[in-house]
Amino acid sequence: MTVRRVLAVGAHPDDIEILCGGTMARYRREGVEVTLATATDGNRGGMGVAPEELGAVRRKEAAASAEEIGAHYVSAGLPDGGVNPTDEAMRQVMVDVVREARPDVVFTHHPDDYHADHAATSKLVLDATFSASVPLHVSDEPATTGIPPVLFMDTLAGIGFLPEEYVDISDIFPVKRSMLSRHASQIRWMREHDGIELLDFMEVMGRFRGIQCGVAHAEGFTSRHAWLRQTPRRLLPG
Fold first, then answer.
1. Whole-number pLDDT of residue 1
2. Helices marked H in the chain — which ranges?
């Protein structure tokens, strides 16, 4: 299976960069078309600024990060802190995100990650990737041909996550770091709210996964094991 188009869906701006930014950069280096989507614009992840203003800032940061690697950025516009996979309107929005990207493989959160929006986005993406292939599920975009495999990104801090596959991002790690650096508002928020230096946090995660597979920096993934989503071929770069 030749991977030509990839879709990565995070709950908030900066999730993709932390958890699979290096892999997305490697795909782009190999000529793969990459869409980076966020379910929300993260407009509650800050303080001292109105949500509407913060949302605009974070969308701009996410677009700048995607531009670093020549990827396309999409915000689904769902409510920060309120992603609900049982909401039909939200599911319809995500179906259209999938149909517009027409991916050969999709990346999203592990269903057991720490944030409710992460778990909800995971479920929403799984459901939408199936519905997107159903012709009688009518929307503004035509149905996709087939149900794409879904790969789960690492959890934050790797808690409860054992990778099945790794991607060596050692040589492209500076690009991943530069992508995350674009999220200045979130770097500041994590420092003030959680006492975490986000760039250092990302580097430690990358080094830890790298140690596991014998390289300097790596990202780890697991597959959604289900009928019609399996393939005998490696979908990851490298």
1. 58
2. 15-29, 51-69, 88-101, 116-131, 173-181, 184-194, 198-213
Confidence of residue 143 (pLDDT cuts 50, 70, 90): very high
Which range of residues forms the domain containing residue 96? Answer: 5-223
CB atoms within 10 A of CB 215: 17
What is the C-alpha to C-alpha distance for residues 58 and 63, in angstroms, rounded to an integer? 9
Q: Helices 51-69 and 15-29 meet at what angle, rounded to 10?
A: 20
**Is residue 13 in some structural domain?**
yes
Residue 216 structure tokens: 């300097």
The per-residue pLDDT for 182 is 98
The structure tokens listed for 37 are 């989507």
Q: How many domains does one find in the chain?
A: 1
pLDDT at 46: 87
Q: Per-residue confidence at 200, pLDDT binned at 50, 70, 90?
A: very high
Token pair for 125: 């993406």
Confidence of residue 70 (pLDDT cuts 50, 70, 90): very high
DSSP-derived 3-state class of residue 157: helix
Query: Is 229 a member of any domain?
Result: no
Give the dihedral sign, CA 96/97/101/105. Answer: negative
What is the domain-level CATH number for residue 196?
Answer: 3.40.50.10320
